[in-house]
């Protein structure tokens, strides 16, 4: 009986008929939803990620930065070329620039054509004037300088200054320069010159503090290969940075990126899981409606393998069709979304890779295999005897088969997201236990609701009975709807809080300027200046530069070999401060703040994350090197620091008096609105030595990233909602035959249409109400855990959840259920009873 | 297509019984189980016809199911087309059915999703016959449905559906045809037409026929009658 071609033809024919009869609608639409969600989210994340990484790269000036004390080695440059990476080499050094009587230490950067590889230089014709993106670099003999240098040198655009033996003419004001500004250490006014001028200026002597920064740009894969190749060869003095790693990768950007990715991935998994539930329901109904067919086929001589050969191809075609449709839809929707959001997104969003297509497709096949295969496999067990005894159903599926398939599918998909088998198993195990527990909770809710039975009319009792009569179906529906509502509520909640957290962290008057290099003698005067201008600052902090040399007598280079993550941050010079008071947004996580009494004691408070990277704990001894001396201190507390607050923050805080022997300058940050930026010129005139850093641009960047994340999240909400409706639809379908039959019987016995409708409404409204209650409780719990563990935000009970979710559930599900069961009363009872006989 | 030599039984039952477990309160309760059939024995030579009669619930369908290998007896042996059914597994019996057995049921049992033609082609396709469509068309013409090839069961009357089922049953030229109350769901005229066709095709193909019915007139047209009462053979004759 192995005519495979015949089988395939027959399978195709059966499928076509089922299709026309609408039998496959639930299955297919749920599948399409799952695949569309995954694909669209996949594409969206992929492109958004590329855009975000791209934007960060724009700030960095390249995808990868290598900083070192010598020019890029020839072999390293050649290797980059072989990998197809674009390379741009620059050098940076501090040098005094002179104009007449005025002289000023400036940070000089010499660049060659092609710089920057990512992002653009922005310049203006006048100080703080309208900015303009430029694609060129200063010509030889020209310089672009930061606005604050002009008053220091007493010059205007067009004026000339001297750098070493070279005269340079200022042709533009430098407004933004990729790859700069990340390091507060070299915060002298910036000057951009052409590399050709470096030698003629004769400013570089042996021993000069020159930093060579090479920028690389290219494909992700090439960069990864290059990085892997390069890292083992780096010396301690080298620093490698990319958008995600390294000292210049801003934690805020990286964290937002990671959070967004996890979030979107999680949401798409929820959509897939819900669609999977709908698929399982649809497949079960499909299977049950094909028991008779399988029995007849068995009777006509089909073996179990023939049955599989007839039904599995149908599933496969369905999978191919659904996945293809979903992938196309997902691709299209993603385009539409980017179109809708074009105002908010960066000018050009890079095209997506092909992976989301493959992932979407694989997801479709996986979900179908996991959720639909077990019920369909049951067809194989149908006994031929059923042709004589219709009530003979095949053995019910073994639990492990049903749930095993679903678990395997979800596990596989989750594994793809987490990339860790252990994590996947953990999450899966947790989810399973949670689901069991939740099932019990839903069942308890259902049981409790039985009390309603007393005191309702016959129509309502009929409807409510429907719920209690099929407790398993009802519980799974409460779970499905409850989880859907919960997911939606959580997404809305977290999204709102994510944004408002940022907004509270970045209030309208968040500091937007940093000032460093305030000399001790002028601290008072500077404070007075701020006060006079009514500029609120974060307070002036002393800053001493020193290098961490040893931990418990062990040299740092040994303890934390270069190239190891975080080594760069630790190996460079650190900004150290002293204070008797704990800065406002710091909290002690271990030990005790030394307080005012500790003045002069050899103790230190270390930032908690740095302590983790350094592997140090309370009581350890740190030895610092200040060039002119050394200092050994004991760690007495660890602090968590809010780096995103744009206030001066420090890895190490000492008690007052301990650092008195070392040269200090003061720093602060303050808020100055846009229209008052002109006052900076006055500040620079009064305090020529200070360096002002404008943070608005960086904050703008962070805001934009957040807005993008929010958009993406709202979009995902839509898919979860759709998947939830797929579950509802599938559940309706699953019980429809029975309802049709019972409805017809009841009407034959004298029930009116209105009574039946009222019964349906009662049933689904109660279902929705229970699901809403369930969702409120679940969302509350999950949000609590999220806030405590992930976002580290204070949690308050979310009352609106309890007020909103139950009625919303009742309304939504009541309406859809009411609509979905309209067929039950539409046809005459006779037609229904005959049609089903 | 009868492969057994003349006189050699193509179908035999020896001491066949069927019990089902665990249903309490039924009649004939023995050892905790319900006995549906007990000690049924007979033999049929190729080309013979046998009517199984009895009141509703007497075990006729159960016996038919056992004889066709749809189920296994609790006791006794059944041989069909030279094979002992007891020794075949479910798939083996399915293969045997596919090659040697045709069915006609009271409730027609056509696949609703296939046309009349496709329904008749089904057993041929399962058997891997290349010219399935031609053979099926001829058979449908033979039962007077040449004009209804592309119609779905829904679009056919009960009598027409049963004629499609007959065409399907004869498609593989079965050695044995099992019919379970083939006219039970039909009005007199349609029933008459269906039974005419059944006996005519049976004679043309020399098929062995096992016909379950409670219609004594129909039973009289068979060579032999087996009368069941509460699962026991109470008469076997003529
Ligand atoms: N698997 C089974 N479990 C319980 N009772 C059964 C089973 N199979 C058959 N019966 C019972 O056996 C009796 C005979 O059934 P059946 O063979 O269908 O009778 P008939 O076809 O003569 O009307 C009936 O009472 C039926 O309910
Ligand atoms: Mg019967």
Q: What report would you give on this structure?
A:
The complex is a heterodimer of chains A (837) and B (238). In chain A, 53% of the residues lie in helices and 16% in strands. In chain A, helix 2 packs across helix 9 (304-340). Chain B is of the alpha/beta class and 238 residues long. Chain B has a domain at 47-70 and 99-237: P-loop containing nucleotide triphosphate hydrolases (Rossmann fold, 3-Layer(aba) Sandwich), CATH 3.40.50.300. Chain B is built from seven helices and eleven strands. Chain B has helices at 60-67, 90-100, 116-126, 132-142, 158-170, 188-205, 216-220, and strands spanning 9-21, 29-30, 33-45, 49-53, 75-80, 83-84, 101-105, 176-180, 208-212, 224-229, 232-237. In chain B, the strands form two sheets. A six-stranded mixed β-sheet of chain B has the order 7-8-9-4-10-11. Chains A and B meet through helix 1, helix 8 and helix 9 of A and helix 1, helix 2, strand 7 and helix 3 of B. The complex binds adenosine-5'-diphosphate and magnesium ion.
Summarize the entry for a quick read.
The complex is a heterodimer of chains A (about 850) and B (about 240). With about 850 residues, chain A is an alpha+beta fold. Chain A has 4 domains: about 1-55 and about 255-420, no CATH class; about 65-240, no CATH class; about 420-505 and about 695-835, no CATH class; about 535-670, no CATH class.
